[in-house]
Amino acid sequence: IGNLVPLPVPDWSKPVILGLLAVCLLLAVRGLVTSRRARRLESQSHQLTADLEAMQSALVPAIPSRLSSLDVSVAYRPADGPAAGGDFYDAFTLDGGRVAFILGDVSGHGRHALARAAHMRYTLRAYVETGLDPRASLKLAGRVLGVEGDGLFTTVVIAVYDPDVSTLTFASAGHPPPILVGPGAREPLTASASPALGWGTATGRRQTIVPL
User: What values do phi and psi take at 137, rounded to 5?
Assistant: First the structure.
């Protein structure tokens, strides 16, 4: 068997080989950069999802099973998965054993809607805690919070239970009315609500008192 001797490389092919090597090197570098960028974007996506879920959890807090003289339970099931929209609620005690409830939903999805929902929840709670009734709270919120001009709107209902007179006073801005059940429940509440916050018109026009 004779010795294998490499054939000489023609001079004209050397630039071609160098060009191919350069292309391979460029593709390898590009693939590395793309892979790192993909990992970075994935990490950022996971972090963003975690941030949104954390913000959403702040808007749907754990509610005690008993507030003043009321037993309270909460069920929250977002339609599009966690951190999807601007849902928010709250329940807290006021002076005299009264209990306040806030339930709302900001249109849209994502961080902007969640930020608006957080602003709504804490501002509305502050209004109620200062002594404003549900209708006055929504009326003030309509003037202060309903003029952002970003196209988002918020439906919300505020209710206050007074154990001294066994009544629930509520006002709604574009939100469905409460559903009353039990032996003393009346016919379904179908009175129309005032306009939602952000519709560009005055809200907080009425409130309803029902026995509870």
Answer: -65, -45
DSSP code, position 4: P
pLDDT digits (tens, 9 = 90+) for 76-89: 876 665 555 688 99
- Give CA–CA dist 158/156, Å, rounded: 7
Q: Could you tell me which residues are beta bridge partners of residue 42?
A: none
In terms of Cβ atoms closer than 10 Å to its own Cβ (0-12, 13-18, 19+), residue 118 is: middle
**CA angle, residues 37, 39, 45, in degrees to nearest 5:** 100
Q: How far apart are CA 105 and CA 113, in angstroms?
A: 9
Q: Tell me how crowded residue 182 is: count the other CB atoms within 10 A of its CB.
A: 6
Please state the pTM of the whole predicted model.
0.70
Q: Which of 158, 152, 83 is nearest to 125 (CA)?
A: 158
The residue type at 80 = D
Beta strand pairing call for 154-162 and 99-109: antiparallel
Q: Which long-range contacts (CB under 8 A, 24 or more apart) does 106-110 make?
A: 106/152, 106/153, 106/154, 107/152, 107/153, 107/154, 107/198, 108/151, 108/152, 109/80, 109/84, 109/85, 110/52
Residue 99: both structure tokens together: 């209990």
Report which of 208, 148, 151 is spatially closest to residue 175, judged by C-alpha positions: 208
13-39 pLDDT tens trace: 667 777 888 888 888 888 888 877 877
The answer to whether 91 and 100 have CB atoms below 8 angstroms apart is yes
